[in-house]
Amino acid sequence: MKIKEENIRLIFGVKVKQLRSEKKLSLSEVSKATGISISYLNEIEKGKKYPKPNKIAALAQTLEVDYDWLISLQLSKKLAPIAELIQSDMLTSLPLEIFGIELSTLIDMITNTPAKVSAFISTLIEIARNYDMSVERFYFSVLRSYQEMHENYFEDLEIAAEAFSKEHQLVNLPLKVAQIEALLEKEYGYVIDRASILEYPALKSQRSVFVPKNKEGGRLLINPNLTESQQLFTLGKELGYNYLKLQNRLYTSSTVKVSSFEQLLNNFKASYFANALLMPAKHFVAEIKKAIATNTWQESVFLSLLDQYQASPEMFLHRLTNLIPQFFGLKQLFFLRFHHTKDNDEYELNKELHLAGLYNPHGNMLNEHYCRRWVSINILKDLEKAQSGQLDLASQKATSNGVICSAQRSQYIDSENEYLCISLARTINPTPNTNSSVTIGFLMTKEFKKKVKFWSDEAIPVRRVGVACERCTNLDCSERAAEPLTVTEKNTTDEMQDALDALQERWG
């Protein structure tokens, strides 16, 4: 595997700094012995500069090590985790600047206390391996943190979408597929192809694939089984990539391989742009104000908004997470997406977002069973019943695309937190036999109750819920999908500690 030049510089700098520290040599002493200026030595140790061979030879002699070992990528055993971290590209591929961190500062911290930092990094790597935390999964975690840090509202992208809309007079909602296709073809040289993707069976689950040309434009392969809302989002995202001039990008709708964090970040920006274009902030906020001003909960109100914007459930709820905190001041919310294969009792939580530090409910990598009382899971059960004819879809007030809506007040066991959750579910195109639910949950604060008038409607069921069956203290739950092993283990430990305390009190 080819090692990046930047990583070679970083490893070399760590080695020089560590060797100098071990020999208790100051920068001025090394400078005097090697003829290398103090400022240049400092740049070497920070991984910014790589010296010429004669300077490396002088450093090797002064630090009393072999020349070949000094230029190798090997570090001492106690520093090996640092080398592993650097060679993984984790440090150099993350846009540390968005978190206010400079790479040189991070390297300084590593090289100033290398043994302690190395042990810490080694622990993190071990945890990551145990939980199957790939670099790609780590990138997704960083992206979530980035969104949460900005309360998932990005004014520059809102302004860009509004400017594009004005430039091209996109005033009538919902926008039409033909409109956006024409813009891609005219402005950016696209060829829209709805047939060729079916020639490649391995790509049948992809909604779209973009094949760029050498200079500009390219061929956009769109799966012909997409709904109109999916087509609008796909085309809108391509507009985002081009209008925002995002060069480093993903070429498939579902990630096959993420080469860098920048790719993932640009995919998010293009997606955000698409949603902002299809659901303009000013218009959307006005509609939501009307929807939450009524004293009664009506699924039809939210479902009609999907039709009004030709939006998928996920597009619609993501737009809520963008604008509710910014324009309504309700910042304590979460978003969840579940996938469920029909005739199966497993539910996969594959996307989540938590604003204001809320982590109930949350995903886990322990293969635990999520609480079966969540509205996110029950709505999937209802959808499957409707699809098999066991439940009248009309009674669920579904949209023309078969989307159903449900609400629930969730009171968390062993917590004072209560959330109002709104969930939407539908089948996934073009993936066969798979349903999806997306849920937005709001912490029911005094401010929330003032602004959302229907919160107390008796039509909204109230349920006591947990996070996962394995750690739920409601031992008599009739919907339990797994034994409370974590709770049992904790009770055993608590009983053992009580016995030890009793021994100490008796004979201590």
Main β-sheet: number of strands, strand sense, barrel status?
6 strands, mixed
What is the CA-based Rg, rounded?
Answer: 28 Å
Overall body shape: globular
Strand content: 5-15%
Number of domains: 3
Q: Can you count the helices? A: 20
Number of strands: 9
- Assign a percent range to the helix content: 40-55%
Strand arrangement, major sheet: 5-4-8-7-6-9
In round numbers, the mean pLDDT is 86
Parts with pLDDT < 50 across at least 5 consecutive residues:
none
Helix and strand string, N-terminal first? HHHHHHHHHHHHEEEHHHHHEEHEEEHEH
Structural class: alpha+beta
N/C terminus separation: 62 Å
List the helices and strands and how they pair.
Blueprint: H1 5-22, H2 27-34, H3 38-45, H4 53-63, H5 67-71, H6 80-87, H7 90-93, H8 103-112, H9 114-130, H10 135-149, H11 155-167, H12 177-188, E1 190-193, E2 208-212, E3 218-222, H13 228-243, H14 261-278, H15 281-292, H16 299-309, H17 313-328, E4 333-341, E5 348-354, H18 375-387, E6 404-412, E7 418-427, E8 434-443, H19 446-451, E9 462-465, H20 485-507
Parallel strand pairs: 1-3, 6-9
Antiparallel strand pairs: 2-3, 4-5, 4-8, 6-7, 7-8
Summarize the structure.
The protein is α+β, with helices and mostly antiparallel strands and 508 residues long. The protein is built from 20 helices and nine strands.
